[in-house]
Fold this sequence. Notes:
The chain is an alpha+beta fold.
Amino acid sequence: MLFGEFRHNIDKKGRVFIPAKLREGLGDRFVVCMGFDGNHCLFVYSAEEWQKLDEKIQAMPTMKSRKIRRFIYSGAVELECDAQGRALIPQKLREYAKLEGGAAIVGVSNHVEIWNQELWEEENADNTPENIASLMEELDF
């Protein structure tokens, strides 16, 4: 399971440090694609989780999945970290996620998200313990 929030800078070459705890869960090679939940962030999947996502998409009727396939696969890249734990994010993906300067690297269970730090803070501005508690009621936890 991937979890935790980490803050690192994107260097001039477009590399971001992937924390060791997250690298362990992602494996040596992982897939990065444009986030598809309405936010301009990047989703990072281990090879195993990417395969699961791919199988679900492949099982959809072609007419329904065509736009999904084009969006997800057109920008997806397989990456690996260098000896210092940095991954080179292609320019197209950096532009999509507005990655420059600070980045938030966040584990969210089965994948990692890479956010522009300011957008991450905006996204979470309304998250209070009370708001989250009301959402958790559905889990009966």
